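User: I'm putting together a teaching handout on how multi-component assemblies are represented. Below are the sequence lines for each component of a complex, exactly as they appear in our records. Could you produce the 3D structure of the whole assembly as structure tokens, so the students can see both representations side by side? Please keep the chain order the same as the input.
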Amino acid sequence: MADTSTAGQTNATNPVAGPAPGRRSGRKLANTAMRLASPLAIILVWQLASMTGLLSPRILAGPSDIIATAGRLVASGELINGLIVSFLRVLAGFSIALILGILLALVSGLSRLGETIIDPPIQMLKAMPFLGLLPLFILWFGIGEAPKIGLVAFGTVFPIYLTLHGGIRGIDKKLIEAGQTLELGTFGIIRHIVIPGALPSLLVGVRYGLSVAWLSLVVGEQINASSGIGYIITYARDFLQTDVIVVCLLVYAIMGLLTDGLVRMIEAYALRWRPEVIA
Amino acid sequence: MSTLVDIRKLHRSFGGPAVLDGIDLTMAPGEFVALLGRSGSGKSTLLRVLAGLDTAPAQKLELPSRRSVVFQEPRLLPWKSVIDNVALGVRRADARSLATQALADVGLSHRVDAWPLTLSGGEAQRSALARALVREPELLLLDEPFAALDALTRLRMHDLVFELWRKHHPAVLLVTHDVWEAVALADRILVLDQGRFIKEIRVDIDHPRRRDDPRTSRIEAELLRELGVEPLHA
Ligand SMILES: Nc1ncnc2c1ncn2[C@@H]1O[C@H](COP(=O)(O)OP(=O)(O)OP(=O)(O)O)[C@@H](O)[C@H]1O
Ligand SMILES: [Mg+2]
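Assistant: Of course. Below is the structure of the complete assembly, with chains in the same order as your input.
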């Protein structure tokens, strides 16, 4: 029975779907080309302005200089070393935030008492512009790794807590009841129903948290860094090397995109049961 | 005759008038009881007490420890494959092979590894039935399990439930709106109204029961009248 219906479906959709993909991909290509045209034109104008001396390299280096500088920084190992240091800071701060955020959200999502105790202060702290806390962090933690990692962790913990807490609260009560009739016990219900059910929300929080983490790092590293991408930027600023600064900004952007892509991959695997992922 | 379920003077109210107003219910092992009643008459409330999802004061509340429930919605965990759903509540080393067998019993061997959200309504409900039966319940509680299915699928499900009941022989309490469903399957039919059973009918007709059998028609007509519907061809 299932076979016939699938066959029927393919037959029915084929004549319609047949010519469409080709036309659609052709249009998509044209669309992409059109969307690329304007950025390319800007880069071209930028390059011309640099070459003719209209745009001083002290204001902004030209695209070709930036590419050359990127090559030089990669070859010397400077960029890679800085990148590793910066990445480790994000990793440390983000891990702290992830563990803390999950713990807090579990306690406040699973018990009324926990929510009464945990949720109000977090909602209040959330309202604070956390990047403005940097001076305090420096006073508290000095100028080593701690204030940078602390700033990353502090900024990141909120999106993780908030999304997971919302996810736990939003779990279908009917599934919890099903778990009760299966005699899973509290621990089993948390493990088999609450956590997997809140996972989609948590992953949204993780993606948002990662972008906050990189943003916090950029700010945190501008001050008193003696290593990492931020240090390279500070150093370049003192010597008016705008090309180096741009390269470093690009690296931040690329790292942000890469970590986001990683979470998306995890998402696609962990949420493969969702129909929109299946389809 | 031994009793599996013995309930005396069960009360339940939600602030307003009592939804269950001193209900008595006894069921023998392996007995198939259908529960009818208007919408809001308290059928689900009673079933939830039997399932242990709700507590209510009673003079006596004797229930078997092994109970399973199938609700109107399948309530499968969407992030677990069908077989993992079925094996979930089974704390035995051979849980997976038991689950495989249970899925074969409901005719779902080909969907064992499927994600629940890709199942059709009937397949999902059959999975839920497998999940309930794999626990080898002494009491199987069914709360309008076929109400959301199309008429044809529902008739097939009647046959399936009957077959499974014959095979495993749990006591069954089936809540339904479908009078024919009750007459076709049950040994005994109860009608709940205003917190009490207002009607009890024993159905002593051999299976398979035919709808054009005058005996089933008579019971159907009687039940419809009890539910406040005058049958057209009574
Ligand atoms: N948790 C609850 N809180 C308040 N009132 C409730 C609750 N559960 C049930 N009720 C009320 O109890 C009455 C019986 O509800 P119940 O769900 O048992 O009816 P039912 O016979 O199963 O109806 P249906 O056939 O529509 O499923 C209804 O009036 C309902 O509003
Ligand atoms: Mg109901």
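A couple of points students might notice: The longest helix of chain A spans residues 185-221. Residues 77-278 of chain A form a domain with the MetI-like fold fold (CATH 1.10.3720.10).
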